[in-house]
Amino acid sequence: MDSEKRLKIAIQKSGRLADMSLQLLEKCGIQLSKSRDQLLCRSQNFPLDVFLVRDDDIPAFLATDVCQLGVLGQNVLREKQAVDNGKFVGLVEELPLGYGRCRLSIAVPQGFAYDGLASLQGKTIATSYKGLLGAYLTANNISADIVTMEGAVEVAPRTHLADVICDLVSTGNTLISNGLVETDVILQSEAVLVKNQIADAEIAQLCDKLMSRIKAVQRAAQSRYIMLNSPTDSLAAIKAVLPGSQSPTVMPLQGRDDMVAVHAVCEEGVFWDTMEELKANGANSILVVPIEKMLD
Ligand code: PRT
Ligand code: ZN
After folding, report:
1. What CATH superfamily classification does 102-189 receive?
2. Average pLDDT over residues 155-166
3. Residue 73 in contact with residue 170, Cβ under 8 Å?
4. 7-99+191-220, which class in CATH?
């Protein structure tokens, strides 16, 4: 492979997605220079350049092929696509990453007589998501005025800039403290790995390699290694209880004909009730340990 070719990924420089995105690369074994003041970090042990930018700029970095991969909220990507599909149509959501979860919702002031979307007819709605909101209103045959605000959308009704708002919600605390009630969810969102149409075969290969590492990290994070001793006659019952495991390893226990040791990788969470059920089926010495890395 041409050693000059490097894959380029854009992640958020600072903000809600920044730490998790950097940690994800680190968990993939990618070492980066520690300074985060700069725009660009080069990895020394993987042909990868990491651009640290504002999340809103990532779709343009991908559309212009400055980077081939980006990590951003689905809300940001879908909004850009809703506003200018021609420019961003080639960007593909490759992998949901399980963090940065939120939803884009409409919220009305307490006391607003809300009786379904029709109540928004002719109203003014403040949002930073005019593309997504506009498409949602059109799809539901509602005609309303959209006021675009870049921040502090939640104060718009109090300051009489708008009747209602459409904004991101995660805990819902911001809505509550501003006397607003969530009525409609327009979009559920999380951080996602986005890819452009990679033309270069070697870059595409690097991209596949990074993606398979990310998938392996995700699988390892949700998997557990479980070890237990089982009565030989309840082995079938014990295997049936083990969550998401394929073929457990069964080994003899020295000096015991009636018991065997069972080791298994469980690709689902192992909760207390599962352990209690294993115990109820005769298992003992049950150990559940996290898995650091996993590759098939
Ligand atoms: O500087 P840069 O442009 O990169 O960052 P930013 O300020 O635009 O974004 P940032 O860091 O705030 O958020 C980045 C991404 O995190 C968003 O695009 C979403 O995908 C995701 N995310 C997850 C959220 C939230 N949760 C969230 N709660 N983004 C924003 N919020 C805001 C929301 O706008 C509202 O003001 O938090 C408030 C509501 O929070 P709750 O918990 O009170 O409901
Ligand atoms: Zn932003």
Report:
1. Periplasmic binding protein-like II (3.40.190.10)
2. 97
3. no
4. alpha beta
Residues having CB within 6 Å of any atom of ligand 1: 12, 15-17, 54-56, 73, 75-76, 100, 102, 167-174, 189
Residue 16 Cα to ligand 1 midpoint, Å, equals 6
Share of the chain above pLDDT 90, in %: 90
Q: Give the distance, in angstroms, between the CA of residue 218 and the centroid of all CA atoms in the same chain.
A: 10
Of all ligands present, the nearest one to the C-alpha of 176 is 1
| Domains in the chain: boundaries | 7-99+191-220, 102-189, 224-290
Strand partners, 290: 224
Contacts of 185 (CB under 8 A, 6+ apart): 103, 104, 105
Domains 7-99+191-220 and 224-290 share a fold: no
| CATH number attached to the domain at 224-290 | 3.30.70.120
Token pair for 291: 């898995």
> What pLDDT, on the 0 to 100 scale, is given for residue 293?
86
Report how far residue 179's alpha carbon sits from residue 157's, in angstroms, rounded to the nearest whole number. Answer: 10
Tens-digit pLDDT profile for residues 178-235: 999 999 999 999 999 999 999 999 999 999 999 999 999 999 998 999 999 999 999 9
Q: Which one of 128, 170, 190, 192 would you pick to mutate in the ligand 1 pocket, going by the greatest count of ligand atoms within 8 A of its CB? A: 170
Ligand nearest to the CA of 105: 1
